[in-house]
Amino acid sequence: MALKAYILLVITTLGWGGNAVAGKFAAGHVSPALLTSGRWLLALLLLLPFALPHLRREWSVLRAHFLFLLGMGIVGFALFNNFYYLALNYTSAINGAIEQAAMPLLVFAANFLLFGQRVSYSQIIGFFISITGVALVATNGNLPGLLSLDVGYGDALLILSISFYGAYTVALRWMPKLHWSSAMVALALGALIGGAPFTVFEAWSGSLILPDMTGWFVIVFAAVFPSIVSQACFIKGVAIIGANRGGLFINLVPIFGTLFAVLLLGEQLEMFHLIALGLVLGGIALAEHKPDRAQV
Fold this sequence. Notes:
The chain is mainly alpha-helical. 77% of the residues lie in helices and 0% in strands.
């Protein structure tokens, strides 16, 4: 079962890594809040035909947990995405990559404080090894450059956005037993509800950018892969191995994002990219080694 979870979580991070590159294409072609709302609206429309039989069969469960599922969609999808996009207007991509990689630590802390779930020594060491790999990518192989990073308003927004997704990840333990498509429909609806005020604000403030052909391409990609495929795989993967272990895989996102940038944007692959990939994978492997022993 663990192998299945690993495969699902790697697929998850492949989609999210691709989304980071797609976000570069979106700049100037569709505004951030409209991109978030558009991707979840399209994802909902794509899901509904496949989900209808399951929605009918599981309606009693959905109705009993409907507010919870909407809340999960608002927090994990709408608030995370919108605050993350907003933060990147005020801070660097380097800060964004490093601070997003801290999300597993927030999951560890929340699980310990709320549920008394202890963390193994191997998970702690594995986390720091993998986050070193992320920092290596984020600083282009110059780890001492971390000391010169500016921290300000954008970084506070980043931590806020990451906290939202950390809360979503921890709360997945209460996800009702549903077919993945039924759950995703409810979550996508929550994302639309939560994202609507941000889109309205863009329109009101004059910062709304309607999508051109490139913008539509990004919306379609984001709806299919990061929104449907990755989120469904993440839910199923975390259900198998838990939030602490599953959250560590998020450190693969900037690694895959870098590799996609090399393949799709023509950026140069450096030796430190390969070293970083080895550190991230090694850290995850160490955290997964006998995770139930030596708890602290």
